[in-house]
Amino acid sequence: MMHDNIDAVASWTPTNIVAQLLGGLSWVLIMSLAAPVQATPEILAAVDPPTADHSQFEQLQRDFANGREVTRACLDCHTEAGKQVRASIHWRWEYRHPQTGQLLGKQHVVNSFCNNVTTNLGRCTACHAGYGWDGPDFDFSDDSRVDCLVCHDTTGTYEKSPKRAGRVLQEPVKVHGHPLQPPDLGKVARNVGPTSSETCGSCHFFGGGGNGSKHGDLDTSLLDPPPALDVHMSDAGAGLECSDCHVERAHQIAGSRYQVAAHDRKGTGAPGQRRYAATCASCHGVEPHALGSDPAALYQGAKLNAHVDRIACQTCHIPAMARGGVATKTWWDWSKAGRLDADGNPIKRHDADGNLTYWTRWGEIEWGEDIEPDYRWFDGTMRYTLPDQTIDSSQSVPINRFAGHHDDPDARIWPFKMMRGKQPYDPVKDRLVYMQLFGKTEQAYWQGLEWQPAIASAMEAAGLPFSGEVGFTETRMAWPITHMVAPAEEALACGDCHAREGRMAELTGFYLPGRDSDPRLDRWAQLALGAALLAIGVHIGLRILFHRRRRYAE
Amino acid sequence: MTRTVVMFTGLERLWHWSQALLIILLLLTGFEVHGSYSLLGFGTAATLHVLAALALIVVWIFAIFWHLATGEWRQYAPTTRGLAAVVRFYLYGMFRGESHPFNPRPKRKHNPLQAASYLLFGVVISPLLWITGLLYLGIDLWSAPAGLPLAPVALIHVAAAYGAALFLLVHVYMITTGRTPTTHLKTMITGREESDEAARQPSQAVSSQARRGL
After folding, report:
1. For A124-180, how does the pLDDT look when each residue is reduced to its tens digit (9 = 90+)?
2. Are A245 and A281 in contact (CB under 8 A)?
3. Which stretches of sequence are listed as region Disordered (chain B) (predicted)?
């Protein structure tokens, strides 16, 4: 009989069999949605052993009086190296943007730190990969002016003079309390090798006025970082150097802040192919999250891979900037510069951590450590506000700008350090200005502490008009954050963004689950639920009331 | 005269309770994903939500097949006959201690109000959740710029989920409106219902009815 059959079926189907079936089907469904697995890249072993031992080279068995003599010795064998370096942005400090046509590079842009290079050459060009760029007559075509050692030193003793346009240090000095010794150039030359985080960092860690000042994700904490700070550069992690990601081709280094590869769709390229790209995807591929072995992990891996399309890796995997114990500048107010104490002496104030918070030459500085980045849609193309463009000084002037929107397939959400501050501008022409800070002349601001001559001389040198009036405008500058990648388990959790007041709070124009809703829907629905609860409450009350009354009547 | 009838077979009860657990889990995790509260964390909630949804789809596929194969879908056929009496009972007669005007029997287990609400859940709320839920689950496949926007999918899904929550709330309360507050719950657990109506058809008759439905 049917009744028995049904009972039989019921007993033949214990809960665990059903559960197995459900689990199995879920698995199949997820598998069909899941993308192919992209393995975590194998960690690179030690650097390739070199085929040449420079300590045996005859040309190098001598003392060198200056850097150019060393370079000439290098060029004896590396005949094309000079030409290659001279074609690079490390040499030119100039970049014609292929998308916008803007002429950028340190030679031309204004920033919100020490503002500009061209009229502060001897100081700024201490970090030029060359010797002697201290004026407009510097010969960019001279191979012997290329500085090979600043990138290829392995001894850690190669010191350039801090204020002499990149020339090698000749006598011992103290810079901000650190004693520097002139190098033994012969020894440095006999020990050249590949670049390292030390050589790259000797300039890139110190931009913007000191260790960590500028970027927020580049400072000396990356020289020997724990894995929690930088899982790639830590010896306990992947043990990589800068050049493992910033691969080079003929001395052109991959990776640019003017044209950022904001959305790398190519990934690792063909097997064995080394791509000229510094993107995460160039090692990790475009589906970087492993698909786990159980349904939950499989779903999560597939879901995270689906995020790659819209979210830069850096957004989740760099949970905060300046995590290594070195602070970064967040605010620089030049309008407060120039104050002297009662005795007419310059003022220097530091915070508890020793960071400079006020200096007569600089103005007011604020610092931050372990900072949450700002998040923006970013298409990778940086546009700069140059001193020949009109600005709107009534609001914070963007030193650099970029496009990007949810509907732009080339854009992804990126983390940024937003550097803010106040800097001089021309209130008559409504333009940003160059300024001369450094130099032995009275016009230099750090000599005379007067803005008008410092700006007039800088604008004249650049061939740009200047009204003679000086105002201060608030500015902001966006620095894409891409270093200090944390281990996977310290990446942001879903709920850091998928929340009412999460990290994506400022990004609008798209529906973000966990954050967005239709308030009317929620209001009406909650009203309906509340009304139902109220009705239930009243109903229960009446039931109890009448029940008691009946019992009482009995 | 009382006798015990099998109102819900083991299979029906397994279906009901697995569905109940999954729906409660889905509501709990779903409204966390919606941002209504924070309980498990968004990632865990979203993962559980998806897994529970996939499991519920499997349950539903079985249940639909079972309903069609046995003809049990007729239980939800809407009718107005006796509806007024049932409404009157809940609003008035119940307080006076009257007995329920509808006598459930295996052939027709649900009173007209009940059947209508289950039908509403089965053919309006559930399909809305199914369709928008599957679109939501696969949104990465068709959302790409200029594709299907997430907002309407998510909002319809949320609206239907509010409907499901409302259904669940009322449903759970109505469980307590049996002869004693736990009568209905016991029936749903044991499958057996005490009946004092001598004229009731034996459960075997329903089975033959169901067989004809095949």
Report:
1. 999 999 999 999 999 999 999 999 999 999 999 999 998 999 999 999 998 878 899
2. no
3. 191-214
Residue of B36, B150, B204 lying closest to A1 (CB–CB)? B204
Structure tokens at B82: 């006796």
φ/ψ of B5, rounded to 5, equals -120, 155
Tokens of residue A285, six digits: 């591929």
Alpha helices in A48-115 (DSSP H): 67-77, 81-86, 89-92
Q: How far apart are CA A302 and CA A309, in angstroms?
A: 12
Size of interface A-B (CB pairs under 8 A): 154
Please give the structure tokens belonging to residue A264.
């790398």
pTM of the complete model: 0.88
Write the CA distances from A57 to A154, A155, A163, A224, B205, integer angstroms: 16, 17, 32, 32, 104
Query: Would you say how long chain B is, in residues?
Result: 214
Judged by CB atoms closer than 8 Å, whether chains meet at B34 and A29 is answered as no
**What does the CA dihedral A260, A264, A268, A270 come to, rounded to 10 degrees?**
-110
Chain A residues 293-352 with a CB less than 8 Å from chain B: 295-296, 299-300, 303, 306, 309
Q: What is the Rg, in whole angstroms, of the alpha carbon atoms belonging to chain A? A: 31
Average pLDDT over residues A410-435: 97
Backbone angles phi, psi at A465, to 5 degrees: -75, 150
Taking the mean position of all CA atoms in its chain, how far away is CA A515? Answer: 26
Rounded to whole angstroms, the Cα distance separating B54 from B48 reads 10
Tokens for A292?
Answer: 């786990």
